[in-house]
Every structure is written in C-alpha cells, then in structure tokens.
Amino acid sequence: MDKDEYQVVIQKIIKNGRHGPYAVARYQGLGSITFSLDSSVWQEDDWPDPGMCVILTKIRKKRAGWCAKSGRFVKPSDESNSIRKEQ
Question: What is the pTM of this model?
C-alpha cells in the first residue's frame, strides 16, 4: 500500500468545469483536494457521489490548492491497510 494514499470524503461533483468534470473532496489538515473525473485520473467506470469515501494519491500542491493525480473507490481491503483517513 502506498504511504501517500488518502481516504477522503467527496464534497461535490462539478460536471462542467473549465477543464472538464472534476470532484472536490475534503481532508482535514489539507482542506479541499480537487481531482479530474477524466479516465486519465479517475480509475473507475462510474463517478463518485457526494458523501462517498474515495482513495486519492499523487497529491500535488498548486497555486490554487491541492490536486490529486489519481483516484479510485475504497475497496474492502483498504480498511485493513494503513491509509491516511479523513478524521
């Protein structure tokens, strides 16, 4: 398990963003983290819904805030691994 994986809660989905659809998640200590819902970033066939927990990796700091370069749904096996979870 990658030590830089974060389990976050989806706050909202933006379907018509300037650079395409994206999601906004929250992680305590970092605040908001955005990520694209394009298939090059979001690894699943379906988009997440607000309130769902997802795993984000490759978190980068940009001028506008935090951005994740990879995301996926939480799997049952994630529950037993050492993923940083939203408090």
Answer: 0.85
